Amino acid sequence: MKKYIFIFIFSIVTTVVGQESKYYFGISYGKSFPIGDFAADDINNSKSGFAEGGNKLDFFAGSTLSLKLNFTITFRYQHFAPDIDQLATELETSDEATYSVETSDAWKIYSLLTGIEYKINLGRKFSIYPRIGMGPMLVTNPGVSITDTDEDSNTRMHRHSETGLGLGYELGIGLKRDLGKNFCLMPTFTFSGGFVTISDVDTTIDHVGTTSDYIPKIITFNLGLSLAYKF
């Protein structure tokens, strides 16, 4: 966690604003941290995502709309492995049983977000860019299975992997540091999430099976370093 704090402080301290260009495009790689129900591992909470910290990859571009406003577009891919080992350990303690844990695939989130960012000068060489974006989001949930190995492999919990389409969003700030005439660092620190319905997901909890729509509460905090080309 310390290295991510260092990245954040480094980006703020070293950010300077140079001559503005009309267009830019770039790539960003960093970390995504699940928040709230998305990170929860409560077996009795139907919204629990069992997601652990993951990675994100952005391809982004922007253009100047006015002296203070930029139009932005971002394609984002996020990947979160399911974390159910701790849940299985807690169940073993409470139930005095032995469980095997299996997962298939992972949380995979694809977002195409368009929005705007607003330039705020905080000094002669320092500016921040509050930003907001919205657009379609495609989500695949991981398959999760916890089985009681002491009782002829009875299923304690099982959820199938499916894919759903929804509406994604992001809200945060961007920074900028020029690297010569055409290149610059443009890190962003954003909260992102979405409203997604994954249809017809088969779920079994304590031997009771249901097929229903799964509506996860996806909220993440994202940070990373970006390299952009401006022209």
From TrEMBL:
<dbReference type="InterPro" id="IPR011250">
    <property type="entry name" value="OMP/PagP_B-barrel"/>
</dbReference>
<dbReference type="Pfam" id="PF13505">
    <property type="entry name" value="OMP_b-brl"/>
</dbReference>
<dbReference type="InterPro" id="IPR027385">
    <property type="entry name" value="Beta-barrel_OMP"/>
</dbReference>
<protein>
    <recommendedName>
        <fullName>Outer membrane protein beta-barrel domain-containing protein</fullName>
    </recommendedName>
</protein>
<keyword id="KW-0732">Signal</keyword>
<feature type="domain" description="Outer membrane protein beta-barrel">
    <location>
        <begin position="20"/>
        <end position="175"/>
    </location>
</feature>
